[in-house]
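Q: What changes when erythose-4-phosphate is included in the input?
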Amino acid sequence: MKFFIDTANIEEIKKGIEMGLVDGVTTNPTLLSKEKKDPQRTIKEILSIVEGPVSLEVIAKDSKGMCEEARKLSSLGTNTVIKIPMTEEGMKAVRVLSQEGIKTNVTLIFQPVQALIAAKAGADYVSPFIGRLDDISARGMEVIEDTITIFSNYGYETEIIVASIRHPLHVLQAAIIGADIATIPFNVLKQLMSHPLTDIGLERFLKDWESIKK
Ligand code: E4P
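A: The predicted holo structure follows.
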């Protein structure tokens, strides 16, 4: 299973790389706005430190504008993936970009048929937002399960990115059902490695070791 980090924060990305947990990065306009600096500068910095795929989102609402933005963004690095929203215009853009060899990640997916449509259009990745579904008492992970089944039924190679992850249990569930990728916020990435019994156990080992030291 691949771990992407869901952030535009350079320090978080660097720390994630040191932890060995950054197979790629996903950003979005909200994450870039949190950095309070020129987004173009942030994007270039991210591309300069990350080897894996980096998803960058278009702002335009029409397919022509999306394609123009996508071409500019993809010229910034060989590892760019263009995030396109799941709209009619977005699907037109995905078709064009896929023919041009520009990689796409269809974002804001909330039901499996949307993922199927994105795959049919030629998307390289789809991003169902499970946390936002859980927030409204829907079952986010079921969208992932059904999408896995649908892609396997028809042999689509589009990779599924489990997005809008809120806690380690989401990562566990995604791994159990065999999702390709989880894109994880930095705080959750850190939580994945910790357990209170690990801390207690380590403290006890060190204390016992001290007691036998001369
Ligand atoms: C995915 O690519 C998105 O950036 C992200 O996971 C959205 O998560 P949120 O619901 O926490 O904003």
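Observations recorded in class: The pocket of erythose-4-phosphate is lined by residues 6, 26, 28, 107, 127, 129, 131-132, 163-164, 183 (CB under 6 Å).
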